[in-house]
Amino acid sequence: MRVRQEHWNLLLDICEKNPEVISNKFNGPDGKAKGHELWQNITHQLNSLGFGEKKKEDWRRALIGWKCKTKAKASKIKQEIVKSGGGPANYVPLSDAEKRLLSLMGTKSIQGDDVCEMGFGQVSTS
């Protein structure tokens, strides 16, 4: 079964209410059980849309794959915008759903941390 836009929109609505779904980090002593229960609920809601059915693990993998592809697309857009050589940037813009997903994931997942690397300082030649 192919994931449709209706699935992504519902999944984004759920993730906005439960941001831990995006990071897949369920904290607390019963975090694993809460995560399992939440994904069971998500699976039921997504399958009830009527376009076919997937197992819980298949929906989790679909979200992971979509996150990966969206991050790669955002990175490619950024590269196209800052590249030199003149001329217009050549890229396919992000969809509204992809923009929502990136806002839920946060900028660190795309741009990384702004931590300066420690290097070898200036070498004195005197």
Describe this structure in words.
It is a single chain. By secondary structure, this protein is mainly alpha-helical. The protein has one domain (5-110). Helices cover 60% and strands 0% of the residues. It is built from six helices and no strands. It is flat and about 70 Å long. The model has no long low-confidence stretch (mean pLDDT 87). Self-associates forming complexes of several hundred monomers. This is Regulatory protein zeste. Residues 5-75 form the Myb/SANT-like DNA-binding domain.
Calculate the mean pLDDT score and round it.
87
**Rg on CA atoms, Å:** 20 Å
Task: Please report the total strand number as a whole number.
Answer: 0
Helix content: 55-70%
Number of helices: 6
Q: Cα distance, first to last residue?
A: 69 Å
Helix/strand order: HHHHHH
What topology emerges from the helices and strands here?
Layout: H1 5-17, H2 20-23, H3 31-47, H4 56-82, H5 96-105, H6 108-111
Which properties best describe this structure?
mainly alpha, flat, transcription regulation, 126 residues, Regulatory protein zeste
Can you give me a brief rundown of this structure?
The protein is mostly helical and 126 residues long. It has helices at 5-17, 20-23, 31-47, 56-82, 96-105, 108-111. The longest helix is centred in the middle third of the chain and has 27 residues, at 56-82.
